[in-house]
Design goal:
This protein is α+β, with helices and mostly antiparallel strands. It contains 12 helices and 39 strands. One of its GO terms (biological process) is proteolysis.
Length: about 700
């Protein structure tokens, strides 16, 4: 069937009234929630067929973009080895294989070994080969891959559906043989005891909330496992971790705004965990790390942007402040090593890393040359190391691995992700712009373009946004994005309120009853790009995913005339109905982010005023592509399915598509080649809506 002949799927409308606070609303597409209903599956498949037919004219472009991604990627590659005790650990990929391979080498010295991708590596031990584990499955995900402190044992967890419930297994690295222990339905992560005899893991409840920590003795049957901690407050998740010093185990329970930590000597895995400090205090968040005779503590009690100090191990209620609160600097984390602490922070919209070397609070910040960039602590499992592994990137600089030598105060570039072909960072330029929101707030925008693309008001633009959970979308490099830039597209990130780019107050101004700031900021950023010439008025496509998908749905309702297209990845577009249903995965946890519309009429009316599904009108919407996954446990597939069905009914002249991955979860398809194909589909659609699909790559 040709593009013009393709029949639009029509989801049957069924009465499903909802009544809250005296408001009765009919939800005619509520039946789409059931993935076991044959009618639901049939509808999703029909939508997939329709999306394929409607984009058939882009098949050659999709193939070209996939080829561009593949040709620029060094398919056989390896990471910079990371030292832990007597081993160097690294991952590698091989051309033609979908998944990574986790490996190690015996350590000799502190300098990472010079090993070359694609060659035989003498002495290499393979811990886990994802390709072998994935054989015969359409989806594969590795939930944990954790070597015991003595280096002899491996805990690893596998999932084959995308629903983020894993089967935990154990391997003897001395023999390569797996133990008979097989523990189903575990969550990400977990921790070994110091002697490797015990592994702690977490389980989720029916709402997919990690709420239990269990203790498993290696070699014993799962039935003998002991429940160590259960978090009964449905606002809280829980997890367990082993400190870098390997001296303490921490059980951390956290809601969106409150944290409680319990600790235990890692040499005594059957002992009782103690509550840290003053325990759970509503509205107080903290993180804890161990160093010698003290715990380093980052907290926000009477300190909106957090303060850093320490407590004696013997009395965790005695807090000694080292870095005081600063309204201009958001302290994000503190990682303790044997004789220093690495502090990650954020200032003026940019991430920073500094070394704290003494009790006087003296900080040594690590400087970088680019005007906008992203830097963060990499893998640093060695407690005694005097070199700090950092990850660095920008809009024009591929992901880079640095070691910072503390004694020499020197950065050493260990690796920069290769980009094959004729890529040259100098061919691209990056800028920082500041849009003015309706209330006068200055909102940062990061911009990248090909050299020669000027702010003359004619360029097509892809504007990306997120704006929730204090999650910052920092400038980052993307090989796939080059397929846009080389066709003259400007790429921009709107660092809108609700994220954390400008500190804790930036987040507070974009949540709960201030959530609309997130959406209006994004529209104001789009307007600014037009005003300063970085985007043609009729050539902007908006993109966002998950909570950023809520943003997409909201701005499509708020300013449909502003955008030529909206690409919504796994979008949270039925926000009100989901947050009203405490049986849905993670809903109760979300009440501190969005408010509780079950209890508050004000929250109910406010959410109803912006929830995308609730506010569809008979207007001409921009072209919309919603991409989702059948096994997504974070944002149910039914949300975009209902949204597209209702859009098609209420606005029959609008161009809307739904594409559902039938064997995937929140992150989409799992294999790297599959992921490239998925992204090629998305980018071809974007180029089409920007009027740039026929533009050949620059010579």
């Amino acid at each position: 069937m040709s593009e013009t002949q393709a029949a639009k799927p029509a989801a049957p409308r069924r009465d499903h009234p909802r009544t809250h606070h005296g408001d009765t609303v009919n939800d005619p597409y509520a039946w789409l929630k059931d993935p076991e209903d044959p009618a639901t599956v049939e509808y999703l498949k029909a939508e997939n067929a329709f999306a394929e037919a409607r984009t058939a004219h882009l098949a050659a472009l999709r193939k070209s973009i996939f080829g561009e991604i593949k040709s620029r990627t060094q398919e056989t590659d390896l990471s910079v080895p990371v030292r832990k005790r007597g081993w160097w650990y690294y991952g590698r990929t091989e051309e033609g294989k979908q998944y990574g391979i986790q490996c190690r080498l015996k350590a000799d010295g502190d300098t990472p070994p010079e090993i070359e991708a694609g060659t035989a590596i003498e002495g290499e031990e393979i811990l886990v080969d994802g390709n072998e584990l994935a054989e015969g499955h359409d989806f594969f995900s590795l939930g944990t891959c954790d070597v015991s402190p003595d280096g002899n044992l491996l805990a690893y967890a596998v999932n084959y559906s995308g629903d983020e419930r894993f089967t935990l297994r154990f391997r003897d690295l001395r023999t390569g043989e797996d133990f008979p222990d097989d523990i189903p339905n575990v969550f990400y992560g977990g921790s070994w005891s110091l002697d490797g005899s015990v592994f702690f893991y977490t389980k989720v409840d029916d709402a997919w909330r990690p709420y239990q920590v269990w203790r498993h003795v290696l070699g014993e049957h799962e039935d003998k496992d002991v429940l160590v901690h259960q978090e009964d407050d449905e606002r809280f998740w829980t997890g367990i971790d082993l400190t870098r010093s390997e001296q303490y185990l921490f059980i951390v329970s956290g809601s969106k705004i409150t944290t409680e930590v319990r600790y235990l000597d890692a040499a005594d895995p059957t002992g009782e965990f103690k509550v840290f400090g003053n325990g759970r205090v509503q509205g107080v968040e903290l993180s804890v790390d161990h160093q010698g005779d003290r715990f380093w503590v980052l907290h926000n009690k009477d300190a909106e942007n957090f303060t850093l100090g320490w407590t004696p191990v013997e009395d965790t209620t005695q807090f000694h402040e080292v870095i005081p609160h600063d309204e201009a600097v958001r302290l994000e984390s503190a990682d303790a090593f044997a004789d220093h602490v690495v502090v990650s922070m954020r200032r003026a919209g940019l991430s920073q890393v500094a070394i704290l070397g003494g009790e006087d609070g003296r900080l040594t910040e690590i400087a970088f040359d680019e005007p906008i960039y992203s830097v963060g602590l990499g893998e640093n499992p060695d407690y005694d190391s005097r070199q700090i592994r950092l990850g660095y990137t920008s809009l024009v600089t591929p992901s880079s691995v640095y070691d910072y030598d503390i004694d020499a105060a020197e950065l050493r570039l260990r690796k920069r992700t290769p980009v094959l072909g004729d890529f040259d960072p100098a061919d691209y330029v990056q800028y920082r712009e500041w849009a003015t929101a309706a209330d006068g707030t200055k909102v940062p925008i990061s911009i990248v373009a090909k050299q020669g693309v000027t702010a003359d008001g004619t360029a097509p633009c892809l504007l990306y946004g997120y704006g929730s959970y204090e999650h910052s979308i920092d400038p980052y490099f993307s090989i796939a994005r080059l397929s846009l830039l080389d066709r003259g597209v400007v790429f921009a990130i709107a660092h809108i309120r609700g994220g954390g780019e400008m500190g804790r107050q930036w987040y507070e101004q974009g949540k709960l009853l201030h959530k609309r700031n997130t959406f209006t900021d994004f529209v104001d950023c789009a307007e600014h790009l037009v005003d300063v010439g970085w985007a043609a008025p009729d050539r902007i496509v908006a993109r966002g995913g998950s909570a950023g998908g809520l943003l997409m749905g909201a701005v499509a309702n708020l300013a449909p005339e502003r955008f030529a297209g909206v690409l919504a990845d796994v979008p949270f577009v039925d926000a009100l109905n989901t947050i009203l249903d405490p049986t849905m995965p993670l809903t109760v946890i979300e009440w501190e982010e969005w408010g509780n519309p079950l209890e508050s009429p004000e929250v109910y009316e406010y959410m109803k005023s912006y929830s995308p599904y609730e506010n569809i009108a008979d207007v001409r919407y921009p072209s919309i592509l919603a991409v989702t996954s059948l096994n997504d446990t974070r944002v149910g597939f039914h949300e975009p399915a209902k949204w597209i069905a209702k859009l098609r009914h209420e606005s029959p002249n609008s161009d809307v598509l739904l594409k559902t991955e039938m064997e995937a979860g929140h992150g989409g398809r799992s294999g790297r080649y599959d992921a490239w194909e998925e992204e090629a589909f998305n980018l071809a659609w974007v180029l089409d809506k920007l009027g740039a699909a026929q533009i050949a790559l620059a010579e």
